[in-house]
Predict the 3D structure of the following.
Amino acid sequence: MTTTQKSVVVTGASRGIGRAVALSFAREGYNVWALARSASALESLRKEGGERIRTHEVDVVDEAALLAACKRILAEGAPRVLVNNAGITVSAPLTKTRTEDLARVMAVNVTAPFILCRELMPAMAQAGGGRVINIGSMASMKGMKYTSAYCASKHALLGMTRALATEYAKKNITVNQVNPGWVETDMFTGATAAISKTTGRSDEQAREALASMNAMGRIIQPEEVAALCAFLASDAAAGITGSAYAIDGGELG
């Protein structure tokens, strides 16, 4: 690529996968725009990652705030990489999933990545190219009960990934999706807590139940997802676009 600035935008950067991704790119010499809602968590990230971390407090559901963040980023040059990581889930049967629940999940998991792509990708193309990496889920590839809103959003994200990969293929921008299984994050902790509350199992038993869903019988670490993102951002991945990479311990088989 011939972009002039080695920078990356990471949403949901204050914890979990996003934090690991931000730190990984900082170690690789990127200037990191770390976007998240929590100012204190972002400050913790900045202290750990050092001078390459630039934080921006923003709720991706707030379109005006998100557009302002894009404007601030572009004022310093087009980023080389965009990692759309921010995501939320709702776990409930269909009849207990409210319309407002669906709307918020779609706003965070689909609309925000769409806006970021729309605002940043043209500048990336003009600067010579770049990489877009969307963080999906195993729920992008299969249905899972009690997560209809989440599955719908992650399937939609994959559709957007493939469409933009085609649209920008000749503009030197690759667009790919990483689909993790259960990862050691706050979302995973919430899932184990819900299992414990519903079934009476211990936290450890709940962890084992979720780990047993994949062939390896283990939980993926955020740093493993970050390593895959780093590869997709590298020159070695220049010919890869419109692809969905599972990192799920073999759950999808």
Summary: The mean pLDDT is 94. The two ends are 34 Å apart (CA to CA). Residues 7-181+222-237 form a domain with the Rossmann fold fold (CATH 3.40.50.720).
